[in-house]
Amino acid sequence: MINLIAVIIAIASVLASLGHVGYLALLNNAAGKRAGGAPVAQYVRSRWALAGGATAASLFAWLLTSGNVVLDILAIVIAVGSGATSMKALQSTQAKYRSGG
């Protein structure tokens, strides 16, 4: 049962991390196509390390779910931490560049 919980949390963490990476890629692509997009592109470059690290940690947590109960608990801790970091970073980036519509 703990393994199933660990796997679900790890998958959610990977999805959150990939969402952040995808948003940064989208933002970088849009900044490259616009005149005056250099500040946005520079901001995106500064965020790649965080996004990549959180994604790597999420994938590592998912990998740990193939072990015993102790590894499952460790996977849950790592996945929750990296998922929360990714979500907070994504929300921060979205708030910074949200258009008024």
UniProtKB/TrEMBL annotation:
Residue ranges of the TM segments: 6-27, 70-90
UniProt KW Transmembrane helix keyword: yes
Highest taxon above the source species: Bacteria
Keyword set, alphabetical order: Membrane, Transmembrane, Transmembrane helix
This protein's name: DUF2516 family protein
Lineage, broadest ranks: Bacteria, Bacillati, Actinomycetota, Actinomycetes, Pseudonocardiales
